[in-house]
Amino acid sequence: MADYQSADSGVEDENVHLFLFIHGLWGNPSHMLTIEKAVKRSFAPISPEKVVTIKPSSFRFWKTYDGIQRCAENTIADLFYEIETLKLKNRCHVTKISIVGYSLGGLISRYVIGCLYELGFFEEVTPVFFSTFATPHVGVHFFKDAIFDKVANGMGKRLFGKTGFQLFLADSENLLLEMTNHDSCYVKGLRLFQKRIILANIKNDRTVPFYTSFITEYSPFDKLSSINVQYFQETPPAKVNNVTVWPKFVDLRRSVRITGGETRHRNIQEATSILRSNVLIRYTLLLFAALVLFPFYLPLIVCLSFYVSGYSILKVKLISGPDIVEHWASVRLSVYHGGSVDTEHAEKGYSRRKERKNLSRHESFKGDTSKMTENVMENMLAAEEHFANDSADVVKDESNEIDTQSRSGSDYITKNGESLPFDAPSLEESSGELDRPTSGKINEKKKSFTSKNYKDKNSIEIPIPDYDRAIRCHTKLLNWNHAEKVPLFDDEVRLPFSKLQQSIVKNLNGLDWIKIPIYHDLFNAHDSIVARRGDMRNPKGTCTVFFWASILRNHISEEISSVNSMTN
């Protein structure tokens, strides 16, 4: 973020496409940095409007316990402040909006959309993209008939404040069900978006399982060793931090269950960490965690989470949230109907910009403790899965030679392919939210991505034009047909849903979605699906996120071509 001065009143306002990135439970804005980078480096150069991004910080860390409603209200307040600040200080006029949510942030996003619809926000601003990464749309529930699952279901709803009751479908309002009713503002708002995209981990996401992020009643990947996972064909490789990787979009139509006496498939990928590939090291670390770390940290974390949970519930009852109705009335008049922007609002928005900038560089005690809580919870789930339920997935590697096809899932061979490298410093060094303007008819050949920048150990090479072509070739796979029979989705892997869960799935699947299964053979796929530890530290996640961004690019390119053909 730069220091912005008040703009010259004689300069005409520039139209803005605003991207709102919303993090998840225990999270903070830095978790969305790689997605933000993909949008700014891939999508922004072809956008007819200036692309501006905002990653709200008003509900970070432990504040995510405050419930979906309160987190959404705080997000909307941040959004309105930013719109006013853009108008007053940058002479920018927000005309389009896209919303991207990660984990719990996807549910918060849907609540935000419902509130914005009720306020009449979409009468002034055009909704374009809505996307979620690893979001528990159907809530959270552990289905195995084991002591751990029963304890987790009982304690889980009480561990995370009001948010916990909502996630475990135990709140009196049945909020997640209400947010799927066809006549609700939430669904009406969702319908207005031009593209609705969800990405779901098929495995190694112990926080948000496949069924709830993919919005389905099937869970076919519990025993992954018995499935031959296939990926989108002819996807080009990328190079991230000197590691060659392929996008990990799973092709559900070609993925099959291995039956009979066939050798179990390990679904090995390129650039697999030693923690994942070496069984001895993995189980040694898990055993150490179970015997040494958990006896001390787990009781501490559970007690801390219970304390924060009670405090959060009490705080939400006693302290009201921001008045978004009055705030929108002010924004609508000043920004969209010729009034004067409230300078106090603009200054508050500007101060929040600086707060987000500082937060991206400096952690706090609350951030450290919430991060520790998340790590302990994740490791506890991993230990339970490996020791109690998933031993069948540990298969001895029978060959040292693994062909590229089995590792990457791609038979792509570069033939004069256009690789577009750009030097990419650490995301923490690139914290600006206001992207450079673009306008008029788009000529991609003039954009900076065609220049050959120098390569160093921190370079990222993304073949963006080839990604665009690959996405166009797989349009049929992206446009999900719920009536189509998927080989892996059979009665054997159907989950025993409650009526409430069945209703949520049925209602949400009444909308058109682009549904993308993702497989990362990493210890923590929930982390990697957005590469939240940084683009350089997670090559597979970064590559996959940029491939997702090509879906957005193609949509806008089609719109631009359509407009240009009409004007010619």
UniProtKB/TrEMBL annotation:
Q: Which GO terms describe its cellular component?
A: lipid droplet
Transmembrane as UniProt keyword: yes
Map out region (Disordered) in residue numbers.
344-370, 392-447
The secretion signal range is: none
GO MF annotations for this entry?
Answer: monoacylglycerol lipase activity; phosphatidylcholine lysophospholipase activity
Q: Which InterPro entries match?
A: AB_hydrolase_fold (IPR029058), DUF676_lipase-like (IPR007751), Lipase-like (IPR044294)
Q: Where is the composition biased (Basic and acidic residues)?
A: 433-447
Q: Which domain of life is it from?
A: Eukaryota
Regions crossing the membrane: 283-308
Keyword Cell membrane attributed: no
Provide the alphabetized UniProt keywords. Lipid degradation, Lipid metabolism, Membrane, Transmembrane, Transmembrane helix
State the Gene Ontology BP annotations: lipid catabolic process
Pfam families found in the cross-reference section: DUF676
Feature: compositional bias, Polar residues: 402-417
| Residue stretches making up the DUF676 domain | 14-212
Family affiliation? Belongs to the putative lipase ROG1 family.
Q: What is this protein called?
A: Serine esterase DUF676
Q: What organism is listed for this UniProt entry? A: Metschnikowia aff. pulcherrima
